[in-house]
Specification:
Strand order of the largest sheet: 1-2-3-4
Distance between the termini: 46 Å
Number of strands: 4
Structural class: alpha+beta
Radius of gyration: 19 Å
Helix content: 10-25%
Oligomer: single chain
Order of helices and strands: HHHHEEEE
Largest sheet: 4 strands, antiparallel
Length: 134
């Protein structure tokens, strides 16, 4: 019945990829601090965190693998952690999210051309309004 209801809506259900979790014994050995360390701590407002998540899921979807025979730099460019993120408020509830290659990342074969993108994200509607690519 549920499958039929989902199919009739014209939308397919895609199960989101969840991050890998450490084995229980390893997780049990980890100790959280009483408070988060003040040095380097950042508080990211909810709308910015949501905008970054929406844009990153489009820019570098989870589970996407590099093509066969990819160079080390190409493999690097598939990794989310290879990109710095800059955010800024835009008009009418839009948040701009820009991804740029992190300094020193993915440059084993020489300087990397601009591989980033800027997203206009409508956080309240949970959608990407537009994408600007180099």
């Amino acid at each position: 019945m549920l499958v039929l209801a989902l199919g009739c809506g014209g939308q397919s259900y895609v199960r989101p990829l969840k991050p890998e979790r450490a084995p229980a014994d390893e997780a049990a050995r980890f100790t959280f601090p009483i408070d988060l360390p003040a040095d380097g701590r950042m508080r990211i407002p909810a709308d910015l965190a949501a905008a970054i998540s929406l844009a990153m899921d489009d820019f570098r979807p989870r589970g996407v693998k590099p093509h066969r025979g990819a160079t080390p730099d190409e493999v690097c460019l598939y990794q989310r952690e290879s990109f710095d993120v800059t955010v800024a408020p835009g008009p009418e509830g839009v948040v701009f999210v820009r991804f740029t290659v992190k300094d020193g990342a993915c440059d084993k074969d020489g300087p990397v051309a601009d591989m980033g993108s800027t997203y206009a994200v409508e956080v309240a509607k949970h959608r990407i309004l537009a994408i600007q690519r180099p």
